[in-house]
Structure formats: C-alpha cells, structure tokens
Amino acid sequence: MATSFRNRKAKGSQAERELVKKFWGINWACIRSAGSGSQHYPSPDILVGNGSRRLAIEVKTLSADKKYFSAEEIRGLKYFADKFGAEPWVAVKFQGREWVFLTLEDLEDTGMSKAVSKELAGRRGLSFEELTES
Amino acid sequence: MATSFRNRKAKGSQAERELVKKFWGINWACIRSAGSGSQHYPSPDILVGNGSRRLAIEVKTLSADKKYFSAEEIRGLKYFADKFGAEPWVAVKFQGREWVFLTLEDLEDTGMSKAVSKELAGRRGLSFEELTES
Questions:
Q1: Could you report the predicted ipTM of this complex, rounded to two decimals?
Q2: If you count Cβ atoms within 10 Å of the first and of the last residue's Cβ in chain A, which end, N or C, has fewer?
Q3: Which neighbouring-strand residues pair with A91?
Q4: How far apart are CA B46 and CA B98, in angstroms?
Q5: Minimal CA–CA distance to B114: which of B75, B84, B86?
Q6: Phi and psi angles of residue A120, each rounded to the nearest 5 degrees, phi first
Q7: Does A31 contact chain B (CB < 8 Å)?
Q8: Is there a contact between A33 and B33 if contact means CB atoms under 8 Å apart?
Q9: What is the pLDDT along chain A (134 residues), one digit of tens a residue?
Q10: Cα separation, A72 vs A88, whole angstroms
Q11: List B4, B13, B36, B134, catalytic entry
C-alpha cells in the first residue's frame, strides 16, 4: 500500500523533531527548517550547533530497506553547508534501528541519486554518540 | 480593528521570507525556523551564515509604531544564540521604512518586555548593508 504524501510528510516532521530533541538533550542548539521542500532556496532539514561545530543535516526515515537522496537534495545540502559554514550530513533511521549519520562521500552513487542501504549504514555510518563526541 | 492571529502569522512569515531573500541575495545562507512559537525549544525566526559570521534573528513587522519583544522571546533568542554559536539580533520593519537591525543591548527595557520605537530604531539600528558589510 502506498504511503500518502501527507503521511510521509508527517513522518518526516516527527523524525526531525525526534532528532531535534536528541541534540538539545546533549545541549546542542538545533532548529528545523520551515521551508524544506517548499522554498526555492536550499535548506537542510535541521541545522545544529554547539558553539564550535555546526551540522546541516538531511533526514530520512521511511520504512524502506534503502533510503534515496535525490541529486537535488544532495546538491542543495552541499551548497547550503558550504555557504553557511557547516558540515553536511545525512541522518537515516531504518525500522527497529538507531539513527545513523553519514557524510556525503559515504553515500552510494546510483547515477541519478545517492543511496544508503542497511548494510552501508552499518558499515560506514556513525552513531549519534560517535557523531557528537568530538 | 484587531488583526487576526492568522493574519499576523501570515504577515510574519512573509516578512521572514523577505529577509531570507535579502540574505541569499548577498550570498549568505539563510533558513526560516519551522517551530517558531510552537516548539518548546527556543529557536530564532531565521538563522543566517556566511562561513565566518552567524546571525540568529528575531523578526517583527506589525504596523504599530513600537515593536515589543516578550522577555521569553529575548531569553530564548539569547539562549539559542549562545548554545549554537551565533550573534543574537532583532530585525524590525516599520511601515514605509527599510529593515533595521538591533542588538539586544540596544532595545529599550520596559520591565515586562523589550521594545523598539521608530526613534530608537533610527538612532541605534543598523541597515541591512551596515549589518552585513563587515
């Protein structure tokens, strides 16, 4: 059964809120972007800072076994991060697993898009604690 | 006639979009916060960066001759900016005038809130160009 757009959007927002809470939980300031997907300026789903590091993060949580980021999403994330002065990251969560964070270089290049499988996430991804410990 | 909440909110979003456009216009990356007013974590209306500076900005545009920021708004802005690593600013626009930017120290302390009159904005405020030229 196909997931409706409204459902996907709600799930996306819920996942972003979950991450926002995790970052505030370790005292890193974090905001969700209003315009994600509807503005013509690039913006990451969430933007995080702790006074020394800043992370621009694109978030994916759908229940598929492989998460895809469009070329445009990745280009926008890179562009934003570069202009703003932030590290570009993607955050993915597979059903029943913890959040995993990957750099853009870690993603699999499928030609049209970038992808993360469970296997790739397990092999190259950082946990929340690993991402934020340094 | 009182302005409805929905109207005020729409005007607020429009003003924020106008500022986002101005910052992107000089190549500073800028995002609007999704949660402004509805989250329990503090977040500025917009967050801007150019690789070296980062500005957390609270935005006001209602057509009154004096703009008020609640103690909570200012406390939240300060807190966010401090944790994130950004300069806290307020942006105000009076009808028929250009945007003016003030630091928190520049605001008038009314006891319950902080305020900016046209006179104060003219005397202490920075223009968009002055804010971003350094």
A1: 0.88
A2: N
A3: A59, A101
A4: 18
A5: B75
A6: -65, -40
A7: yes
A8: yes
A9: 455 666 766 777 888 999 999 999 999 999 999 874 455 899 999 999 999 999 999 999 877 889 999 999 999 999 999 999 999 999 999 988 999 999 999 999 998 899 999 999 999 999 999 999 96
A10: 14
A11: B36
For CA atoms A23, B74, A32, A57, the dihedral sign is negative
Query: Is residue B30 less than 8 Å (CB to CB) from chain A?
Result: yes
C-alpha A19: how far from its chain's center? Answer: 9
Q: Is B61 on the interface with A (CB under 8 A)?
A: no
In the numeric block, which tokens belong to residue B56?
Answer: 């957390």
User: Is residue A87 a contact partner of residue A54, using CB atoms and an 8 Å limit?
Assistant: yes
Task: Measure B53 CA to nearest chain A CA, in Å.
Answer: 9
Query: If phi over 0 gives left and psi between -120 and 50 gives alpha, with beta otherwise, what is residue B27?
Result: left
| CB-CB under 8 Å, B33 with A31 | yes
d(CA B50, CA B118): 29
Inspect the interface and report whether the beta carbons of A83 and B36 lie closer than 8 Å. no
Asked if the Cβ–Cβ distance from A85 to B28 is below 8 Å, we say no
Q: Is B70 a catalytic residue?
A: no
